[in-house]
Amino acid sequence: MPTDAAPPGAPPRPGAPAPRVRPRLVTSVAESMTTAIVTGTYPAGTALPPEGALGELYGVSRTVVRESTTALAEKGLVSSQQGRGTIVLDEDRWNLLDPMVLAALYLRDDRLEFLDSLIATRTALECEMASAAAGTLSEQDADDLAAVLDAMGALIDDPEEYARQDVVFHDRIMRASGNRLGRAVVNGIQGKALDVAQYQGRPDRAHTEATHADHLAILAALREHDGDAAARAMRAHILGSWARRRPRDPDAG
Questions:
Q1: Using CB atoms within 10 A as the burial measure, which of 38, 79, 90, 180 is most buried?
Q2: The whole model's pTM is what?
Q3: In this structure, are residues 38 and 44 in contact, taking their beta carbons and an 8 Å threshold?
Q4: Could you tell me the end-to-end alpha-carbon distance of the chain, in angstroms, rounded to an integer?
């Protein structure tokens, strides 16, 4: 009986749809290759192994390798060059806001430098957003923030849960500012860092109490619609909190 199916192992007929590749498989390989590049397994200027070798390394087809390499190119990590293969690009070409690239950066030996840069970026953006929020925050928004802080006050003896609610508190202020791009940047760069032990530190009750006092000062400035005071309070909070939890030993955490 005639059939439209090609014999096993036969190449697809002209016009036949290309074989489908499981997106999760491509994502997994791209993530592993991203980590290898960012952490220095494949330094800038060197060529990635050929598709066949990468396929054997990851146990996948050439099609998966090809699509994974395309994903790397979209992140600014590699470039296909005639006669040279797929070349790793210099770090200044990388998309540092890409979640996979960020996650890999936080695995490097110099990750503290990137965490310091994250704090500097957060400070600049969140101070601006706190100032903007002070000018637009409604009484209801302020009451909602106060309710969040009241609930957080009951978590002083639970630093880990307090830290999770800290993210919620900051996000509400950013949302109130109306700066959607700034909020997206902060949430994006901080999202992966929240899984890094060096970023979280080992907060104790004293640290959490100091953080809570900072939050109350920020809320007070917002209630007064004082943009300058809100920005100053936010700056003191972000920088002070990082100074308390930043490890002195670069290899700690």
A1: 38
A2: 0.80
A3: no
A4: 66
